[in-house]
Amino acid sequence: MFVPPDMESVKRFRDEIKKSLEEHTFPGEDIQQIELACDEALTNSITANINNDSRETIICRWRISDEKFTLFIMDYGRGVPSEQMKSIQEKPKNIQSIMERLKEAQKKNPKELPYGTNKKKHKNMGQGLNIIRNIMDTVKVFYHCNGNVSEMPEEKINGSIMEFEFSCKKRT
User: For the range 116-120, what are the long-range contacts, defined as Cβ-Cβ under 8 Å and sequence gap of 24 or more?
Assistant: First the structure.
């Protein structure tokens, strides 16, 4: 699915994901969890494109095999800083640490993201990757530049490719 870097495209993306999961008879609760993670992932990619002054189309591909859902999202942002990836791998110890993270994120100015022909302020909570990490079984980040893909960002990258996996079997 080719997605313009516009927040209006998030609903259409979620609808397509939901339809695919329903066709493969995923349980309703799993569909809701996957939809939330996909929403966060695409919102992050749109934000990354906008922050990098890129109007490039975001590419979203997914596959469903038995009870496993895999999503790939390729954007043209700057990628995920390694210190941020380390922090999302650390689960919060208590509600107070979650609230502290949210307060820090709220101190930042809201970004204006495109919604169709308008721009609306979007207060980045800084928790998208944490939400995704807690829902999905695996989260991987790759970087792309001039047709090459690597796990380690080089000095010059064109963007990132995020891979997310969710297995229903682990939840039964």
Answer: 116/6, 116/8, 120/7
For 66-115, list the strands marked E by DSSP: 68-74, 111-115
Could you list the beta-strand ranges (E) of the chain.
2-3, 58-65, 68-74, 111-115, 118-122, 138-145, 148-150, 159-167
Closest CA to 60 of 78, 39, 31, 81: 39
CATH number of the structural domain 2-171: 3.30.565.10
Q: Note the pLDDT tens digit of each residue in 99-123.
A: 676 666 666 655 666 566 666 555 5
Whole-prediction pTM: 0.76
| Position 8 pLDDT exceeds 80 | yes
Residue 145, token pair as written in the block: 């530049």
Both structure tokens of 86? 């380390």
Q: Strand, helix or coil at 60?
A: strand
Place of tokens 């609306």: 120
The span from the CA of 150 to the CA of 141, in Å, is: 9
A 10 A CB-CB count for 133 gives 20
Name which of 92, 93, 86, 121 is nearest 106 in CA terms.
121
Domain ranges of the chain: 2-171
